[in-house]
Amino acid sequence: MKDGVVVVNTARGKIMDEGALVEALEQGKVFAAGLDVYENEPEIHPGLIKNDNVVLMPHIGTATVETQRKMEILVIDNIRNVLEKGCLLTPVVETRKSKL
């Protein structure tokens, strides 16, 4: 990775090692970072909060009427599928080992 890159994470907090990111910011390897998900939500690494080159936002990527409506329908479809077929349509990693 070149020095001075900008890191943006709006996906999943666990994919980013915040301690390593803070270190890379302090060393200049990473110039700036923009995050709206965090490794240990709701906690945020203090080094990110103190750094002027870091923009921190709440996870608002789904804050549109259209996306909220699609999410509502997906929840209903997941519930229906569990009741009728015993499995989720969109299981998350943490639930893959469960009976759902």
Proportion of strand residues: 5-15%
Radius of gyration: 18 Å
Shape: elongated
Average pLDDT taken over every residue: 90
What multimeric state do the chains show? single chain
Spatial strand arrangement across the major sheet: 1-2-3
Largest sheet: 3 strands, parallel
Structural class: alpha/beta
Note poorly predicted spans: none
Percent helix, as a range, is 25-40%
Distance between the termini: 41 Å
- Return the string of H and E elements: EHEHEH
Per DSSP, the total helix count is 3
Number of strands: 3
Outline the structure in words.
With 100 residues, the chain is an alpha/beta fold. 36% of the residues lie in helices and 14% in strands. Strands 1-2-3 form a 3-stranded parallel beta sheet. β1 (5-9), α1 (18-27) and β2 (30-35) form a beta-alpha-beta unit. The chain is elongated, with a radius of gyration of 18 Å.
Main features:
3-stranded parallel sheet, alpha/beta, elongated, 100 residues
Give the secondary structure arrangement, pairings included.
Blueprint: E1 5-9, H1 18-27, E2 30-35, H2 46-50, E3 54-56, H3 65-85
Parallel strand pairs: 1-2, 2-3
